[in-house]
Amino acid sequence: MSAPWVVAITGASGAPYAVRLVEVLARSRIPVQLVVSSHGWRVLSHEVGIGSEEELREATGGDWSSVTVHDNADRGARPASGSARSAGMVICPCSMGTVSAIASGTSRSLVERAADVALKERRPLILVPRETPLSLIHLRNLVAITEAGGIHRAASPGSYAGGCVARPEVGGVSGSGGLGAARLSIARIHGLLEPVAAGRVRVEVWHRGHPLR
Q1: Model confidence over 163-182: pLDDT tens digits?
Q2: What three-state secondary structure class fits 193?
Q3: What CA–CA distances, in Å, run from 70 to 8, 53, 105, 118, 187?
Q4: What pLDDT digit, counting tens, does each position of 76-111 carry?
Q5: Which of 9, 85, 103, 189 has the smallest number of CB atoms closer than 10 Å to its CB?
Q6: Contact, 129 vs 93, CB < 8 A?
Q7: How far apart are CA 20 and CA 128, in angstroms?
Q8: How far apart are CA 23 and CA 64, in angstroms?
């Protein structure tokens, strides 16, 4: 089996991006080590009406045979160890609090420790921050992570108001014929997140898990 990608969902706006990312990976049988922070669950509930692991599983296709879920409080879990194989890590969406913790190396949670591991082991670390405008502190933290080897792809949804977020179109993979079931390369992760950075979204708007027509 190929090395898994560590996927983390934190408490920044942009939950639909996370749901679609997990859906594509799960449907493609890409091994995933999934971690959702407490604030990540809060945003999932507020923006797309997903309040539990079971609801997230159903929203992402129902088959999680390739997905392993870890508690964010468990800093002894597999993603916290540098000796555990992984293909890299994606934090989508990534809160500015998480960015700050990664930049300073505090490792207070499994998400933060797993990101620390990705950097120290020279594995891909892709952050999808959702924040605007960015303060000088935000920018300096992102620069520090970039200098350490991380990559940030800012999410720019075309519509956001309260609990309504335009559902992101993140299914395409630039420069490839689709996701391979056996392996997900850094280039393909970039292709998956390309529409996130560009802010390309479907016309339909979703609220609490249901499309508004």
Answers
A1: 444 444 443 322 233 333 32
A2: helix
A3: 10, 11, 20, 17, 26
A4: 999 999 999 999 999 999 999 999 999 999 999 999
A5: 85
A6: yes
A7: 13
A8: 9
* Nearest to 86, CA basis, from 127, 30, 45: 30
Cα-based distances in Å from 26 to 67, 121, 142: 7, 25, 29
What lies within 8 Å, CB to CB, of 151 at 6+ separation is 124, 125, 126, 127, 190
Contact 66, 30 (CB under 8 A): yes
In the numeric block, the tokens 């879990």 are attached to 77
Strand, helix or coil for residue 125: strand
Please state, in angstroms and as integers, the Cα–Cα distance from residue 194 to each residue in 15, 38, 118, 133, 190, following that order: 16, 27, 21, 21, 6
Cβ atoms < 10 Å from Cβ of 42: 13
The Cα-based distances of 12 to 35, 93, 96 in angstroms read: 14, 6, 8
Q: Is the distance from CB of 59 to CB of 209 less than 8 angstroms?
A: yes
Each residue of 10-68: pLDDT tens digit? 999 889 889 989 998 998 899 999 999 999 999 999 999 999 999 999 999 999 999 99
Taking the CA atoms of residue 116, residue 122, residue 123 and residue 128 in that order, the dihedral angle to the nearest 10 degrees is 60
Residue-level length of the chain = 213
In contact, 46 and 19? CB cutoff 8 Å: no
pTM of the model: 0.81
Nearest to 94 by CA among 170, 8, 33: 8
| Two structure tokens written together for 9 | 């969902």
And the tokens for 12? 């920044």
